[in-house]
Amino acid sequence: MTAKPFIGRTQELEKLQTLFNKKSPGLVVIKGRRRIGKSRLAAEFAAKNPQSRLWNFSGLAPQDEMTAQSQRDYFARQLAGFLKIPPLTFQDWSDALEHLSLHIKNGDIVLFDEISWMGAKDSSFIAKLKAWWDKQTKSITMIFCGSVSTWIEENILKSTAFFGRINLTLTLAPLSIYESVLLLKAKRFQGSSYDTYKLLSILGGIPWYLEQVTSGITADDIIKQLCFEKDGLLFLEFDRIFHDLFNGKSTTYKKILEALKEGAKTLSEIREGINFPHSGTLSQLMEHLIVAGFVKKQSLWSFKTLKPLKQSLYYICDPYMRFYLKVIAMHRAKIDLGAFIDIPLSSLSGFDAHMGLQLEYLLLQNRSRLLKAIGIAASDVVCDGSYKQSQTSSIEGCQIDYLVQTSSKNLFVCEFKFRRKELNSEILDDMKTKIHSLKIPKGYAAVPVLFHISGVAASVETSNYFYRIIDITDFLEE
Q: What domains does the chain contain, in order, with CATH numbers?
């Protein structure tokens, strides 16, 4: 069997190795979005230290009939499997952990994957885990990870039980555009820059999604295979996410994301859109979606004072999540009937327009690459992000794909365009209108920047209007 390619995570592996080399007990938390590659990172780290043994334990996915004993029984079966002995039984987590201590040695790596599932049904799990860890004298590396990031935040990272005990916390981001391309190449995908971006704008930089790409077929057929077939992995993925991560509370979270699928909104707009009662719990639910990696909170700010404004924008930051809600979900009934087998994606109403917004989500995930292309040092950035100026009686409303304010009082107004054909002079008028609407303080300069994929007309090049015209096909290379 060919080994699955492993791309990126260089800094994370270096940090893990540095901790490992101290030859003392080390406690690590790896968090991040579902399918981001948390357990795979731990396995790759273990593979780079072949003298060590990896004890890989995982919790059972939540089910209605699941009990605390179910999780202990599963742990016992995994441990017995590692030791190649008859099945074990533990009635208490302390007994289970003490039995593990009998077998681990210096240099071993112990992974508790989906730790939230392991302990969710047992209120004493964290206390017993903490007590066990405090007794460790062997130089083992203990790794906690899981998809339910809110549980990890509340029960481990912010818990008094583990205060001062965690040696390293790693939050895994999606792979960069370049790293994603390397993974696609490892999967033998061959396609144009446009088709590559079409895939990335749906799959994001999520390693597991990229690994599902099949060689020898077009980008459109890959998308149809994954998203528009009733057994397609990404057709089914949405429901699995909400079952595994938000079991019992999924309905409200889905309503929130539905409210955001058309674009960024304030908290009050979300509340009104889903008829949520006036209480503080909506902010908490939004925070859960942020920690899960699906939503981002974008603070609006005053150009003059640099202070955050009262209202912030929330938007879906995950390309797949937005694509499912905006495109796949509306065709679920037809997909179940196999209606898209012989239908080209281009026939879907507004598909190209959807892909334009998908690209925006992808590019915003790659902020460092955007700044580098514009020529802005990160240290010069005062504030940046997508920007919305609300309309008032005296101010026009406008939406900026990406706005960067620098310490030198420049406002870089960035436009993302994802079109098959080259951009003509209409883009000049569009940008001038947008910048004219933007309320710019005296002494500041608005600097227009254009990101594109299919070229621009000579009239746009020779107009010298844009500070930079950036071809994002360059992002596909190192």
A: 10-172 (3.40.50.300), 177-358 (1.10.10.10), 367-476 (3.40.1350)
